[in-house]
Design brief:
The chain is an alpha+beta fold. About 25% of the residues lie in helices and about 35% in strands. It has one helix at about 1-35, and strands at about 45-50, 55, 65-70, 80-85, 90-95, 105-110, 115-120, 120-125, 125, 130-135. The protein is rod-shaped. The termini are far apart.
Length: about 140
């Protein structure tokens, strides 16, 4: 009886050490894998904001466009090239076409004709679902 109890104690200690070592290994391995996948651009999560959404053409003002290139977790991705599709009647002025540490890029648009515009937005060459929509009155 004494030997059976000692045997189970030894088996328990061995299984605990092996399980603990496996858990530590998986923790370090899992962290490395998740860091690599966080930088994947998500066109569905990335957004573009326009301010103001309408502007009188006679005011000669500019429309500010802010683009956020985000990953699948909604975190900004730094150092990505952004682009707004050109339009004949809307001059896109680059302010900051490379995303900053928060994944933000800024553009300004000046119009030459009255109308409503919907321009496509790209992060690192991928078209995002959000469009730049504004009106010149």
């Amino acid at each position: 009886m004494k030997y059976i109890f000692a045997f189970f104690i030894v088996v328990f200690i061995v299984l605990t050490c092996v399980g603990g070592g496996y858990w530590v290994f998986q923790s370090k391995y899992f962290v490395q894998n998740t860091r690599a996948s966080q930088v994947a651009l998500s066109p569905e999560s990335s957004v573009a904001f326009v301010s103001p959404s309408s502007l009188p053409l006679a005011s000669k003002g500019r429309i500010q466009v802010t683009i956020f290139c985000l990953d699948t977790r909604g975190l900004g991705i730094p150092s990505l090239q952004t682009k707004i599709a050109p339009h004949v009647d809307a001059l896109v002025l680059e302010e900051e076409s490379i995303t900053d540490e928060k994944g933000k890029a800024t553009y300004f648009i000046q119009g030459s004709r009255v109308g409503s515009y919907d321009l496509d937005v790209y992060c690192q060459g991928q078209k995002i679902e959000s469009k730049v929509s504004f009106s010149l009155l």
